[in-house]
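User: quick one, sequence for these tokens?
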């Protein structure tokens, strides 16, 4: 047992030794280690900056308007009716409403159910198109959350009592203007993955409803899972580095994120589940679902971005920063030896 654990540590250490190191993109000296750990810091930051997070979330929602319009349009019409409109079916069979009443005698039940999947294809394709736009908003949110996690100062204005009030809106758009390129690229790639993987999953569901999925549909489902899950896990570690390691080449960030994801698979998966929790909880029907949807509109994006930023800073503090400092000491020692020679 001890040997297996040692092998795992050695394997992980070998992966992490291949990390590309660089200085963090700080504008102020690093603060001392936060007392109480990462979880405490997350909740302390969230509680003490709630008004700022509401502002950040509202600003990010501006860039989520295409997504909200798409969802509102489709669910306002109704997914069932929307699917039949796409297929140019004039008389709705009412497959899902009225417990099946309204189906004509000649209606093929399986074919009618499969027709409904067209609406979901369009929904996920539309989401894929909208994701890069959301990437602009996430860039601004990442910048502000990174400064909060690092404890850096903000541009401030005086309120009527003479107190300094952070200019969150100004900082948000400053971050968006400077850092938008890589988050938008990441969300564009995620959009392609969402479109492709959702289509493969829908094909598999159509195969089940037809009676028996083909080998190609089963392989497609497996491929969708094997592509989507690693991509989401990679994004958890990659997205915050677009701000914290801005000066590092994007390829190096991508490599580092892949190595960290592999080395810390379980912690990264847990963070992904916590990040996905708001979306999953909103699927709850009834009054609870409405309350959760309102909560997400208020602070949802801010919660997710702070969660990812706080986790990424942990990785940086424990691994990347010590490696960079060790590299700097080694280079300094070599320079001194050359001078002495």
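Assistant:
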């Amino acid at each position: 047992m001890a040997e297996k654990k040692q092998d795992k540590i050695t394997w992980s250490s070998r992966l992490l030794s291949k990390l590309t190191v660089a200085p963090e993109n700080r504008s102020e000296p690093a603060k001392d280690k936060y007392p109480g750990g990462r979880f405490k810091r997350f909740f302390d930051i969230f509680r003490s900056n709630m008004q700022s997070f509401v502002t950040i979330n509202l600003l990010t929602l501006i860039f989520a308007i295409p997504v909200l319009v798409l969802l509102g349009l489709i669910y306002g019409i109704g997914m069932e009716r929307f699917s039949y409109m796409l297929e140019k079916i004039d008389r709705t069979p009412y497959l899902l409403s009225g417990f099946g009443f309204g189906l004509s005698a000649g209606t093929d039940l399986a074919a009618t159910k499969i027709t409904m999947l067209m609406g979901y294809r369009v929904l996920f394709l539309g989401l894929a198109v909208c994701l890069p736009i959301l990437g602009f908003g996430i860039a601004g949110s990442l910048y502000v959350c990174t400064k909060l996690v690092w404890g850096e100062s903000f541009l401030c204005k005086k309120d009527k009592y003479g107190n300094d009030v952070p200019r969150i809106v100004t900082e948000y758009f400053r971050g968006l203007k400077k850092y938008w390129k890589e988050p938008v690229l990441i969300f564009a790639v995620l959009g392609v993955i969402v479109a492709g993987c959702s289509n493969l999953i829908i094909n598999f569901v159509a195969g089940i409803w037809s009676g028996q999925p083909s080998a190609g549909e089963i392989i497609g489902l497996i491929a969708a899972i094997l592509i989507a899950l690693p991509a989401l896990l990679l994004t958890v570690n990659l997205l915050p580095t677009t701000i914290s390691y801005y000066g590092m080449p994007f390829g190096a960030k991508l490599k580092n994120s892949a190595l960290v994801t592999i080395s810390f698979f379980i912690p990264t998966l847990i963070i992904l589940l916590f990040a996905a929790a708001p979306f999953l909880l909103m699927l709850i029907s009834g009054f609870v679902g409405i309350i959760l949807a309102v909560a997400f509109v208020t602070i949802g994006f801010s919660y997710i971005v702070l969660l990812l930023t706080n986790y990424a800073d942990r990785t940086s503090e424990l691994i990347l920063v010590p490696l960079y400092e060790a590299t700097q000491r080694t280079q300094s020692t070599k320079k001194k030896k050359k001078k002495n020679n």
